[in-house]
Amino acid sequence: MLPLYLDDVVSEDTKNMVEEHLKSCESCRKEAVLLNEDMILPLGSGAQDAEIKTLKYLKKQFRNKKAVVSAVSVFLAFIIMLGTYALLVTPKLFIPYDSTCIKVEKIDEKLYVRYIGSNLDGSVARNSFPLEKDGEKKDVTFFYIYKSPWSELRALLQKDTEDHLIFLGNVDEIDEVYYGKFRIERPEELSADLEESELIWKK
């Protein structure tokens, strides 16, 4: 490759590759000096054909290596983005009850929860569930709201506080509303959840 490089008949990529190699190879640098002093290209010879084939092979290998590095870089970037998204969005963090920002309101014979805050990510409710309490049956609604690291970050970046109105159900279908993190997948245990929840509205 050195004769072709010294004669400046190689591409820019190959030129850079040869120059990188010359920086670390003493013997090739000496050979380049000798060839530069008295260079004779064996035009049409088998030696030149072999050099050209070698050069083409190395260029192909170099391109393949670049393609592999690019593909790996894109894959790693995708994994990092996916992991970051999962860490920010997936966790559902319970927001403790605070009467100053969580209030039950009756509007047109319907019950709503008003939440004042910018970090809300979602809500979970179990409506009109018949429950025996103090010897009488009541239609009880369990409710709570949650945040995520992403909604917390979004709240930090926002200047204004948001006002959320969340529908609970019709007034005639609900006797009491409890706030607490209940097990929605096991409704038969809601009586136990009652002790850990806070009564925030009743008829």
UniProtKB/TrEMBL annotation:
Gene3D superfamilies assigned: Anti-sigma factor, zinc-finger domain
Highest rank taxon of the organism: Bacteria
Keyword vocabulary terms for this entry: Membrane, Transmembrane, Transmembrane helix
Any Pfam family matching the protein: zf-HC2
Transmembrane segment boundaries: 67-88
All copies of domain Putative zinc-finger, residue ranges: 1-29
Family: Belongs to the zinc-associated anti-sigma factor (ZAS) superfamily. Anti-sigma-W factor family.
Listed name of the protein: Anti-sigma-W factor RsiW
The species this protein was found in: Blautia parvula
